[in-house]
């Protein structure tokens, strides 16, 4: 009934009536994602009618509800045949300011039309293979990059950037050829990195260092959404970028890694949005060549070092909260390097462990990233070793029992998901410089057996990678307990009492004779078996 009424007005009515009926339809079906198959033909005809209205050049106030209804209807894959023609795609491109003749974005009144047109294109391209092919023929990726350049530094058009980026993500997700085009022909890596810089309002203090204002306001919802879409598009552009062949590539990836470091140190409008932002940053960091991840840490300046020491010295004894904050900040410094970003990654990993579900999708990317960082960068590995595997003091409990990060990771070493337990074990192994004896000290032989068997190291030894030769130092508590530690379980066990100590002399003599008789019976059986074999 709704489609019939809307179709009648669209075919016969004037702009004002069309606007009213389509706005009513949009309000009513805003949250509709499943449609009645009986009305399929009516919805197709309504789509065709809407395109005829858009061609007429109706006012902006009428264009917006037309596009809203078209966006809702394009959620249904079955009715897209009349929509996905070159003529109709060109209409949407023109309304979205993706046509070559559109040089500027000056008319604010047109912004809602641009946004709704981009939303329609996102749905249509995602749901229709015909539209995907037309996107390639119309060079849609290049048009989207051109629109991004127009609105790169303009904060008040975040919605346009957001849906431009979303459409770019959809295209690069569906077509590997577009990834290559974005990466090389369209210079997508620097362009999208600049979009992130703009969203984060980054101010550079050095080539790969940005100023971080921890007391500043969180990102706005619009900036956060825009950054998330840019991160997702960048992930597709860089998905095959493990090896760097040119110095210019290395520089671009280092700039991007520095932007991602900034991303990890800021927060979104809500805790959930912050986690989504950081999750996409982690995924993208996994695509960065490991040699370029050194920019995640940076040396402290002389001023920062002096300020850190002065802060602790100058705070009076009653300023407990302030001292706690200062101590927490100093805990993120290692060997004169600022480790804030690595600390955020470690906290993110622990939160994902605590969730207790979707480990493969949610946990393995950050674990893999921390493993590769630790393997390639000594300061990162040593900092993480201090945080995850501090010197052992209390070994009364099994390694998997407890609430520390070490306990949680050791529990994952026996997880039912093979991929999860492998990467958790690999991370701890790398923190131990791939030395079997060091790993067993922190995990116990039982928990580490799977990794050691896969590596052919059940008899001991070390992995294939080279690490510095600095030695681990054991605490006095561990040295005293070491003789009584069960190597299989990895924890302290009190020596079992000797049952003979509690026996009288008569009981000892009885047990000894019992043992002699058992040995004698075994010997006789063996002799009889030998005689039968000889006789046979």
Automatic annotation (TrEMBL):
Pfam families: Ric8 (PF10165). InterPro entries: ARM-like (IPR011989), ARM-type_fold (IPR016024), Chaperone_Ric-8_A/B (IPR008376), Gua_nucleotide_exch_fac_Ric8 (IPR019318). Keywords: Chaperone, Cytoplasm, Guanine-nucleotide releasing factor. Gene3D superfamilies: Leucine-rich Repeat Variant (1.25.10.10). One of its GO terms (cellular component) is cell cortex. It is found in: Cytoplasm, Cell cortex. Its main location: cytoplasm. It comes from the Eukaryota. One of its GO terms (molecular function) is G-protein alpha-subunit binding. Belongs to the synembryn family. PANTHER family: SYNEMBRYN (PTHR12425), SYNEMBRYN-B (PTHR12425:SF2). Interacts with some GDP-bound G alpha proteins. Does not interact with G-alpha proteins when they are in complex with subunits beta and gamma. Chaperone that specifically binds and folds nascent G alpha proteins prior to G protein heterotrimer formation. Also acts as a guanine nucleotide exchange factor (GEF) for G alpha proteins by stimulating exchange of bound GDP for free GTP. This is Synembryn. It comes from Rattus norvegicus. The lineage of its organism: Eukaryota, Metazoa, Chordata, Craniata, Vertebrata. The gene is Ric8b.
